[in-house]
Amino acid sequence: MIDRIGRSAVAAVRAAGRFGQFLADLAHAIPDVATWGGLALVQMRRIGVDSLPVALFIAAFTGIVLALQASYTFTGTVPLYVVGAVVGKTMMLELGPVLTGLALAGRVGASVAAELGTMKVTEQVDALETLAYDPLAYLVLPRLIAGTLMVPVVVVLGIVIGIVTGWITSMGLLDLSTAEFVKGLKFLYRFKDVWFGVIKSASFGFTITLVGCRLGLGTRGGAEGVGRSTTRAVVASAMLILVLDAFWAMVLL
Amino acid sequence: MIRFRELRKAFDGRVVLDGFTLDVRDGETMVIIGLSGSGKSVALKHVVGLLHPDAGDVIVDDRAVSTLDRPGLMALRREIGFVFQFAALFDSMTVADNVALGLRRRGLSDAAIAQRVAEALALVDLAGTDRRTPAELSGGMRKRVGIARAIALQPRYILYDEPTTGLDPVTSAVMNRLMVRTREHLGVTGIVVTHDMISAYAIGDRIAMLSEGRVRQVGSVAEIQATTDPVVRQFIEGRPE
What we know:
The complex is a heterodimer.
Chain A: H1 2-29, H2 33-47, H3 52-74, H4 82-121, H5 124-130, H6 135-173, H7 178-187, H8 191-217, H9 223-252
Helix pairs in contact in A: 2-6, 3-4, 3-6, 4-6, 4-7, 4-8, 4-9, 6-8, 8-9
Chain B: E1 2-11, E2 14-24, E3 29-33, H1 40-47, E4 55-60, E5 63-64, H2 70-77, E6 80-83, H3 95-104, H4 110-123, H5 139-151, E7 157-161, H6 169-186, E8 189-193, H7 197-203, E9 206-211, E10 214-220, H8 221-225, H9 230-237
Parallel strand pairs in B: 3-8, 3-9, 6-7, 7-8
Antiparallel strand pairs in B: 1-2, 1-4, 4-5, 9-10
Helix pairs in contact in B: 3-4, 3-5, 4-5, 5-6
């Protein structure tokens, strides 16, 4: 028993050490802008633009459901224009960033881990090194920068779409006028709601890509290893998103 | 000159190299033979710092590889071409982009890169394939693109990891001819890791047999063919016992 605990502790310390070394190496790769600069733009399209359909789809239906559930909860007790406040506040503070983050953990996290994992097991990462490229500058930094910059953009667009669908639902199904919905939207609005959501989603984007890259580059074995890394990347990213969500709520709210 | 000095490497407690020592002279092609899993590729990867030794070192000219800092290692890698067992081509790029990637790192102009790519592809008899992707190529063609990628850099050394493994006899012969042509054309020093004895005899100036983590015997092709060492004889004759 004690032996097992000891081994687990040693393994955990080693893993932490390796991750620390990974971050230190990553920091050393930052000055190599010539390598990662152009590639970051390509990744911004792949991680940001290509993720828009799934993110906006989720946001659209979230806005509809929020309006309907708020109306169901408030009818007969609270003025119905508060539906606007609920839709706006919830989309900005919580559901916009978190649902988008979870969706991108699946889409982007899996894609990054699988791509880098496949490159690792087929020696493409070694080939990069022999061509005098730093894989961290060539593969990791572009994805990390793209994730950190583009996930907030996707989230903000998602929030806008969610509010718009909430507004359309309120007008079409709840007999709420545009003026009433906007009144509700402004009722509890604070500018902090926006930047809170943006900071949170930037941390989600950073985490999703960092976890995907780290686990992808750590892949061992063949196809089975790639599958294992991909699954672990999605699960770890999703869990970390929820942890970060709680962390930012404690620190910033 | 590449010198392996008392190289020792273990993975999860399993010793793969155990005092591997070998000198590769300038201008020669050294073939390292040995059973699958005997550590041939592991030795090769130490030359370019893809693996770090547990003890010992590889000395390229006067540089001990394991002691080099990052810029030093990058500078060393610019002098060495590495041809991987399964080519390790970047499947998201065209053939031309694969060959050009290492050249872009050297700050050459687009025109110079295009010229070098064309020359390298012509040297491996793959002119006209530059717009194709690795998925559209056969295994032998991919390996030839891997060689083109290495020689386009005009390296001083080329390392080949199992260049004929998985190829049919005719394609293997093409690869052998290509490696000989590359040495004659560029005058590079080469190390070839293989367990294909036809290839070893065709391309090697000297052959070293790796067994139990160290060099069992090293000598010219004729010396290896005439060896009386039972382990080396068994390997080169392909006898089960």
